[in-house]
Amino acid sequence: MTNTIKIQRAIKGLTQEALAKEIGVSRQTINSIEKNRYVPSTVLALKIAEVFEKSVNEIFQLEEQD
Questions:
Q1: How far apart are alpha carbons 60 and 45 in whole angstroms?
Q2: What is the dihedral of CA 4, 52, 14, 66, to 10 degrees?
Q3: Residue (of 37, 27, 31) closest to 1 by Cα position
Q4: Three-state DSSP class for 43?
Q5: pLDDT of the residue at 21
Q6: Which among 42, 53, 46 has a CA at the least distance from the CA of 11?
Q7: Residue 60 pairs with which residues in a beta bridge?
Q8: What is the pLDDT of residues 31-55, one digit of tens each?
Q9: pLDDT tens across 15-26, in order?
Q10: What is the mean pLDDT of the chain?
Q11: Which of 10, 8, 12 lies closest to 45 in space, CA to CA?
Q12: Which whole-number Å values give the CA distances from 51 to 8, 29, 63, 64, 66, in the listed order?
């Protein structure tokens, strides 16, 4: 799965730390999600999408091998 979190953060002017604080996770979790090392839970994906006022599908995209 790929994602556009880094791009969405840049648009909103949020750091990894600020996003993490807003959704209640560590900065390392945000970093791991951005680098596709960690797939977030449904709840976490929904929280991220809510922050960016986007649908989950606009933030996260399945890859062929998923």
A1: 8
A2: -30
A3: 37
A4: helix
A5: 98
A6: 53
A7: 3
A8: 999 999 999 999 999 999 999 999 9
A9: 999 999 999 999
A10: 96
A11: 8
A12: 10, 16, 23, 27, 25
Distance CA 30, CA 42 (A): 15
- Exposure class string for 17-28: b at 16+ Cβ within 10 A, else e: eebbeebebeee
Q: Which residue has the tokens 């890859």?
A: 63
Residues recorded for the chain: 66
Pairwise CA distance, residues 49 & 3, whole Å: 11
**DSSP conformation class of 65:** T
pLDDT of 66 > 80? The answer is no
In degrees, rounded to 5, the angle at the alpha carbon of residue 32 between the alpha carbons of residues 37 and 40 is: 80
